Amino acid sequence: MLTGTRVIDLSHVISNGMITHPWLQRPVVNEFVTRDQSAAFSAAGVTFQLEVISMPGSTGTYLDAPFQFHVDGPDVSAVPLARLFDIPIVVVRVPDGRAIGAGPIRAAGDLRGAAVLVHTGHSRFWGEGAFFRDSPYLTADAVAELVSAEPLVVGIDSQNIDDGTDKAKPAQHRLLGADIALLECLNRLHEVPDRGAWLRVLPTPVRGAGSFPVRPVAVIR
Q1: Which InterPro entries does UniProt cross-reference here (predicted)?
Q2: pLDDT grade, residue 1 (50/70/90)?
Q3: The whole model's pTM is what?
């Protein structure tokens, strides 16, 4: 790494039994081979552990691929990495209110080819029941503004980029339909400058998955 480069981890840690969504299965992280078991067939002083992990794709901080809402769209394994790696970040800060309209998006300026990360501050409630209540979301007007602006990625630090009561799911349906990848449940956006950082996301290439946990980072050179 070059001297002076800073890397900010934008993800939340996933742990056994955590609540990632109240209505989804909690992740299960089990030992498949324990250290005591491995000691029986390893050299003296050598042990290891193997795990079996079961969890929904929408666990922790996760990537939504177009396939999640559009059967002909690329799944997590097929999203082009060029659309996720070294993408200039534009942070849109919306500290007040729940429904995020087009105004803050429009005020952010040129967003073409960018990763638009919406900072609401809601990530401070991670691990609490409050994270799932009054979660900020993008309105249909904000979504229309983003589709016109042509970013490569849109992310948010709240529980869902859509209003959970809106059956049309405008953000997920329209943004993914425009081949704009989504990042949900982001973290530490308060540490990322409005402009000048670069997003890097390398998803685990899981075929047939519409969403899957990722570890996005912001790189400040």
Answers
A1: KFase/CYL, KFase_sf
A2: low
A3: 0.95
